[in-house]
Amino acid sequence: MTANAGTRARTTARRSVRRGAQLLGGVTLYAVSIALVVHAGQGSMPWDVLTQGLAHRTGLSFGTVTLATSVVVLLCWWPLRQRPGIGTVANVLVIGFLVDPVLAALDWLPSPLPLPAAVGLAVLGIVLNGLATGLYVGARLGPGPRDGLMTGLVARTGRSVRLVRTSIEVVVVSAGWVLGGTVGWATLAYALAVGPLAQVFLRLLAVPEQAPRTADAPRPEPAPVA
């Protein structure tokens, strides 16, 4: 192995470790951010309004419905020709299994929360969600189920990201609200703030793309001795 090949291998290993750590940290923080906003009671994130409504109607836990919804959304990828990555699977499993324990831990807080505390909890959850998105998307290991649905529809329809995302969120919020989910100022604040927040954190946290490999340059043969 040449010196260049050894350096390249060490760089690749460090990059892989960073990507894995970012992915796990990102999806863990994502679950925490969901729980914070839900517990605040000031209105949930758009998809979580639907999750709350379904949980209310079925009697299943929030995490169980989150997991089931993610699987259903993943099935919608098939006709859109989207391919899941490791990050997609981690997003489904970690968030689905972690959000219920975090919600249970938050139940130890005073109930009902004073309004300033509820507002602060919702704002913290929204900011953490932007950070979590920057971490797991910046790891470049695959989008979450809902992001993949959006990008797949954008690719298939030719419509703008803003139009497709807004259309999806209007549908899920409306359905969730009808089913009994919580809609409030935090729902709107999330819809307006998470894009800019995620963009800022992505600039700071995105793992640089790996440069294409180039063959080691051949060493010149020594000149023959006259």
Task: Please outline the helices and strands.
Blueprint: H1 3-40, H2 46-58, H3 62-75, H4 77-80, H5 86-106, H6 115-138, H7 145-157, H8 161-179, H9 185-205
What does this structure look like?
- There is one protein chain.
- Helix 2 (46-58) runs parallel beside helix 8, helix 3 packs antiparallel against helix 5 (86-106) and helix 6 (115-138) runs parallel beside helix 9 (185-205).
- With 226 residues, the protein is mostly helical.
- The chain has one domain (11-205).
- The chain is globular.
- It has 9 helices and no strands.
Structural class: mainly alpha
User: What is the β-strand count?
Assistant: 0
Overall body shape:
globular
Question: Quick one: biggest sheet?
Answer: none
- Which regions contain 5 or more consecutive residues with pLDDT less than 50? 215-226
Q: What radius of gyration results from the CA coordinates? A: 22 Å
In brief:
The protein has 226 residues and is mainly α. It has helices at residues 3-40, 46-58, 62-75, 77-80, 86-106, 115-138, 145-157, 161-179, 185-205.
Using brief descriptors, characterize the structure shown.
disordered C terminus; mainly alpha; 226 residues
